[in-house]
Inverse folding.
């Protein structure tokens, strides 16, 4: 009886949105108990990130009627997380964030099922992401956002009039916090601007002069960047630093401590080392709660149509008083990520190896260490080693044959691209057209030039 009353109390406010009509509802909204049941039974939501914002998102989504949730995060719990990531306890230090967060929410919210994934987002096959209706981001990294954005936009297909096919649209809800500031936004690939369309919103990362780092460090950040940018290459010649590798980060921290002691500079901690290297600004619990609430509400709107969605970027500033504002940004019609895809014209004789070489030379791509897939089938994978060995024999085969002799089709490539001295993982969608094949018209060839 008590459980039944608690369930009714929890769904009271939700029922006000889902069981009755309104003036702000979406065009397909049909109120009634069936909608609430469908939300619980069929809506599948992936939360990316189980940190400060991710913990709030899991809790809010579970309390908003979503029952089928999954969460992915590669980090383990640290003592410094406990002041704002409320699902974790001291005895959880060292455990995977995703697993502990899922367990704690399921303990508190009856009926919800949360599947945790303790791994890098790049470790999952693309089809893993395609299984979800909505992807919600609680990330602290521009690179990670760009990757998930490219994955979701990669599922988007356009018709012959370059209109997005509705059934291929994978909506995303993105939240971010920075001290007392935050944002919530919706990304509907092909309709609203994607993350890459508005990448200019994010300020450039602070850079320190190398002469200061090498000769006259004055702050803890200088010592950390010295270990990261100078000392690492001196000691690990030829080995790329991986900010997501705990052993690499621990090495930088230890070297930064030595550097700081040499110059009498206090303040180097492991947490600060992570923040400087990955450009992370510590979050505040209240900001996380506000932004998570906005993201959870937008997710509910997308899933049910109970109200029109945000148009399309909300900013929050709690530094001096309280200020919120909604801005409608415009989609970049030439975006390489959410557009119809980059046109690549090839001869049928081109092998997969030659195609991968061309990706490295293409002025709009400049992709190194590329992996290639077609309709979910791995044509060639750079990693892990077992997949590389399994797909290596395809390198000498014609790409035309590997794509089942389809004269024009979409393929996906993942690889690394360089921005200055920084290398980042990315995913790109390509429209491959084979020249001289029946079914390829002059209009096809001209359309993506």
């Amino acid at each position: 009886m008590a459980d039944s009353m608690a369930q009714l109390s929890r769904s009271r406010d939700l029922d006000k949105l889902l069981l009755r009509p309104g003036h702000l509802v979406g065009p397909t909204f049909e109120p009634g108990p069936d909608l609430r049941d469908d939300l619980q039974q069929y809506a599948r939501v992936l939360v990316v990130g189980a940190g400060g914002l991710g913990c709030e998102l899991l809790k809010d989504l579970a309390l908003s009627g979503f029952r089928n949730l999954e969460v992915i995060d590669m980090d383990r719990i640290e003592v410094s997380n406990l002041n704002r990531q409320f699902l974790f306890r001291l005895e959880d230090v060292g455990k995977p964030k995703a697993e502990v967060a899922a367990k704690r929410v399921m303990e508190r919210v009856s009926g919800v099922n949360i599947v945790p994934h303790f791994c890098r987002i790049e470790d999952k096959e693309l089809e893993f992401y395609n299984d979800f209706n909505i992807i919600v981001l609680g990330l602290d990294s521009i690179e990670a956002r760009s990757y998930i954005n490219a994955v979701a936009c990669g599922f988007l297909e356009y018709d012959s009039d370059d209109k997005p096919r509705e059934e291929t649209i994978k909506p995303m809800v993105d939240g971010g916090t920075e001290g007392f500031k935050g944002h919530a936004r919706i990304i509907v690939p092909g309709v609203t601007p994607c993350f890459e369309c508005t990448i200019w919103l994010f300020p450039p990362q602070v850079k320190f002069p190398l002469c200061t780092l090498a000769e006259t460090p004055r702050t803890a950040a200088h010592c950390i960047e010295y270990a990261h940018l100078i000392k690492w290459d001196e000691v690990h010649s030829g080995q790329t630093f991986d900010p997501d590798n705990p052993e690499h980060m621990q090495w930088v921290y230890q070297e930064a401590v030595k550097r700081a002691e040499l110059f009498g500079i206090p303040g180097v901690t492991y947490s600060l080392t992570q923040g400087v290297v990955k450009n992370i600004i510590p979050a505040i619990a209240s900001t996380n709660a506000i932004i998570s609430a906005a993201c959870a509400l937008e997710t509910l709107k997308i899933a049910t149509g109970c109200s029109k969605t945000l148009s399309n970027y909300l900013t929050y500033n709690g530094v001096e008083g309280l200020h919120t504002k909604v801005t409608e940004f415009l989609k970049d019609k030439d975006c390489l990520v959410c557009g119809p895809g980059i046109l690549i014209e090839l001869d049928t004789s081109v092998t997969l190896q030659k195609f991968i070489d061309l990706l490295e030379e293409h002025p709009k791509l400049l992709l190194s260490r590329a992996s290639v897939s077609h309709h979910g089938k791995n044509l060639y994978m750079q990693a892990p080693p077992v997949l590389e060995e399994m797909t290596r024999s395809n390198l000498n085969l014609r790409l035309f044959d590997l794509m089942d002799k389809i004269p024009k089709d979409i393929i996906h490539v993942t690889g690394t691209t360089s921005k200055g001295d920084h290398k980042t993982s990315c995913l790109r969608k390509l429209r491959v057209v084979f020249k001289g094949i029946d079914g390829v018209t002059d209009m096809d060839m001209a359309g993506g030039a």
